[in-house]
């Protein structure tokens, strides 16, 4: 198995997002269970890694809290102060679809700190790769706003940390979360030193973002690559998108560090997606990122947990990610099966649209040497 760092902190479970409540008239409430982004997500992933034996083959590391200086590389002071004040007052709503409790701002700093620790491990020649099981997620948080379960943008904090501490000039972020990484896009939209490739379900969340025509502006033009995919894309469809877009662009960009916003919410049982990716698809995506990193940036790779909300399937999907990262396959019978999705004409057209837009910036009409 490939040597791999594992970043986690027990305090991640303390971020309490509460219950999902329906209001049915005056003083009539119906609880339908925990909020989608709840503490059981990291508990079940960690338990799966422990009981599969994978965690015993990883090197554990605990993160530190991100400081104001770390967060200010990405966010405004106003945003940080607002998050602290919201937590101190015990207000449950931190932003649009962002819920928490009095310790949530601190735990969000710990999540960003986990992303930075993963960078340290990726830059350490003894490991070169790491998986950070962090919470809350981050890729919807913008410069001045919390959004969509995210208080601070973990992957953006990690990228800016890598630039300042390690002097890196080119960092690539691949975001395969089912939702568009709009916060990450906003932060780096004018900046060619960070290439963002976001694969996401088209026309979903957030609305009106993530179109193929959003390519960046100024010096960042061409370095923001949105790949909106049709529902039910499936394992084969994601592989098609990786081979036709992700690989050739990464090969030409030649990043010095590869970061992955790894949301396992494209899985076929997720309540917040319709993309039908299963464990083999996640294994493929992580394996491909590992092998790309080995070819273009000396293996320097950090995979950061984002979304994934099916408690029965999230640990299985993440098992696939870690199998791909560590170059192994665990003997585990997946009790869930869905029909394999073929590559459709709709998918081909979606990929061709992105190729047509980005052919101004990248060579996309040849077979990349990174096709795996």
UniProtKB/TrEMBL annotation:
| A Pfam entry, by short name | Hist_deacetyl
| Location of the Histone deacetylase domain | 37-319
The family database entries (InterPro entries) matched by this protein are listed as: HDACs, His_deacetylse_dom, His_deacetylse_dom_sf, Ureohydrolase_dom_sf
Q: Per the similarity annotation, which family is this?
A: Belongs to the histone deacetylase family.
Tell me the protein's name: Class II histone deacetylase
């Amino acid at each position: 198995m490939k040597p791999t760092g594992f970043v986690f902190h027990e305090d991640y479970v303390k971020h309490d997002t509460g219950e999902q409540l329906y209001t049915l008239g005056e003083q009539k409430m119906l609880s339908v269970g925990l909020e989608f982004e709840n503490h059981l997500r990291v508990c079940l992933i960690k338990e799966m890694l422990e009981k599969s034996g994978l965690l015993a083959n990883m090197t554990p590391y605990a993160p530190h809290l991100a400081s104001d200086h770390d967060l200010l590389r990405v966010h405004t002071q106003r945003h940080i102060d607002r998050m602290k004040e919201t937590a101190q007052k015990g207000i449950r709503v931190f932003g649009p679809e962002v819920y928490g409790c009095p310790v949530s701002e601190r735990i969000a700093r710990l999540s960003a700190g986990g992303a930075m620790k993963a960078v340290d491990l990726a830059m350490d020649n003894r490991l070169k790769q790491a998986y950070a099981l962090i919470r809350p997620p981050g890729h919807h948080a913008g410069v001045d706003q919390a959004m969509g379960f995210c208080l601070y943008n973990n992957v953006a904090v990690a990228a800016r940390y890598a630039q300042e501490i390690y002097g890196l000039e080119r960092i690539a972020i691949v975001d395969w979360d089912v939702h568009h990484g709009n916060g990450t896009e906003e932060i780096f939209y004018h900046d060619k030193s960070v290439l963002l490739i976001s694969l996401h379900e088209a026309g979903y969340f957030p609305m009106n973002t993530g179109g193929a025509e959003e390519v960046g502006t100024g010096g960042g033009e061409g370095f923001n690559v949105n790949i909106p995919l049709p529902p039910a894309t499936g394992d084969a469809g994601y592989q098609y998108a990786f081979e036709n877009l992700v690989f050739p662009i990464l090969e030409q960009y030649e990043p010095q560090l590869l970061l992955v916003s790894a949301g396992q919410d494209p899985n076929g049982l997720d309540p917040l997606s319709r993309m039908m990716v299963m464990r083999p698809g996640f294994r493929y995506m992580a394996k491909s990122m590992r092998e790309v990193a080995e070819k273009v940036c000396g293996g320097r790779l950090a995979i950061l947990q984002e979304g994934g909300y099916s408690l029965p399937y999230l640990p299985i999907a993440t098992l696939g990610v870690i199998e791909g990262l560590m170059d192994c396959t665990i003997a585990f019978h997946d009790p869930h099966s869905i029909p394999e999705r073929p590559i459709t004409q709709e998918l081909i057209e979606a990929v061709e649209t992105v190729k047509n837009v980005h052919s101004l910036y990248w060579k996309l009409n040849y077979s990349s040497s990174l096709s795996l």
